[in-house]
Every structure is written in structure tokens, then in C-alpha cells.
Amino acid sequence: MPRIRGRNLSVLYDPAEIAARNIELAEEVATAGYVDLLVVSILKGSFIFAADLIRALHAVGLAPEVEFLSLSSYRSGTRSTGEVAVLRDIDTDVTDRDVLLVDDILESGRTLAFARNLMLSRGAHRVGIAVLLEKPGKLAQPLQADHIGFSSPDRFVVGYGMDVAHAFRELPFVGVIEGDGPEDVAIDVSIVTEGSQKQD
Ligand code: IMP
Ligand code: MG
User: Fold this and answer.
1) pTM value?
2) Residues whose CB is under 5 A from ligand 2 (ion)?
3) In ligand 1, which atom is closest to the CA atom of 163?
4) Among 54, 70, 109, 146, who pairs with 128 as Cys (CB 3.0-4.6 Å)?
5) Does domain 15-152 have CATH number 2.30.40.10?
6) CA dihedral defined by 117, 98, 169, 191, rounded to 10 degrees?
7) What does the pLDDT read at residue 82?
């Protein structure tokens, strides 16, 4: 069991599984028939997934444009409070474009619903959603991802871009901090941030 920052982590999805799944997702995206595709990576949590997915898209013969949208959901510890804000916008006009939003996790759906509505309100022709992980049963509103890497257990995960207070993003696997329920992780976060924080 990897030990990082003095904590034991169990591996949920290892690098080989993730890489294999990324190729399958890319094939799915290719089959879905997006035209003149613009990939929008939602920062910060999706940066590693998006980097791997766009190279998988290249491997299956696609040539997307790539943009970045930095969003923040206000969270208290590990719980979402519902507010979403744009921290840094994309530069590209999405009018009549096919857009694929790429994010790390679909949980309450608030982040992706916000991003999807933003793209549609700007006249995007089609907005697809690709996520590495989905946590089933947690949606606060109806939202369907089109391309899902893995259906994740309802635990707070880290690694492969995902963080607790910006730590653990560098891990090449997706893991869970053992010996802690999400509440205990929240306590750790509150020590670092003293209260509510923005999470991406
Ligand atoms: P949603 O708006 O509730 O769907 O929240 C999704 C965002 O919350 C994700 O993009 C992540 O940045 C963050 N998030 C949700 N669950 C986790 C987790 O288990 N680990 C790390 N980040 C998470
Ligand atoms: Mg995120």
C-alpha cells in the first residue's frame, strides 16, 4: 500500500487500468461523431485526465482543439455547497461548435451542469461530457455524462489530478486515503484551510 505524506493510500485504479480505459473512452468519443471538436478541460482537477485523454484522442485519429475552463465549487471540507464560479474563462467562441467537457468527477453534477449551461447559453451546437469517475447516486440535479471512465465507490478519492487541499494531485493512480472516512479528510482540510475552501 503506497504511503504518501504519512498516510496509507489504497489504489482504486492503477496507471495501466486508467491508460487502457482512456483508449476505450477515446474510441467512444470518436464513434460519437462530434464535428470540429473543441475539448474543454475543467481545471484544476481534470488536468491529468484531459492531458491523457487528448493524446488518446490523437491515437484514435481525432484532431481536437483544446481549451481550459477554470471553475470553482465552494466546498466545506469535502462537501459541496452548490455555488460554482468561473475563475478563468475559455478564449474560444463556441457558437455552433461541438464541445466536449472533460472533468475528473461527476458527483452532485453542479459543476458540470454549470459548465454545460454556460456553453449552451453561448450557442454551442452540441455539448458532450466526459468524466474519469462517476459517483452514482449523488446527483443534486439530473445530468448524464456521455463518456464515463469508471463508476467509483462513494469515497473521497485523490490522485491523477484530484486533491485534498491541492495535495496528492501528482499520484499516477486514483486512490483512497485509508484509515479515514471522508469526514476525517474534511477535518484535515479544515486544519489546512481553516474552514470552507474552494475545490475544483
Ligand atoms: P460536483 O459539482 O459535486 O459534481 O463536484 C465535482 C467536483 O468536486 C469535481 O470536479 C472534483 O473537483 C470535486 N470532487 C468531488 N468528489 C471528489 C473526490 O472524491 N475527490 C476529489 N475531488 C472531488
Ligand atoms: Mg473538478
Assistant:
1) 0.91
2) 45, 104, 200
3) 21
4) 146
5) no
6) -10
7) 74
Contact 131, 114 (CB under 8 A): no
Residue 95 φ/ψ, nearest 5 degrees: -50, 125
The C-alpha atoms of residue 160 and residue 121 are separated, in whole angstroms, by: 31
> In which residue are the cell numbers 489546512 written?
192
Dihedral sign (CA 148, 150, 155, 161): negative
- Calculate ∠ Cα 160-137-130, nearest 5°: 40
Check residue 196 and give its pLDDT: 45
Number of residues assigned to the chain:
200
Among protein residues, the one whose CA lies closest to atom 3 of ligand 1: 108
Ligand 1, closest atom to CA 164? 21
Assign 95 to helix, strand or coil.
coil
Kindly give the distance from the C-alpha atom of residue 3 to the centroid of ligand 2, in angstroms, as a whole number: 24
Residues of the chain falling short of pLDDT 70: 74-81, 180-199
Give dist(CA 162, CA 47) in Å, integer: 9
What are the sequence ranges of the domains in the chain? 15-152
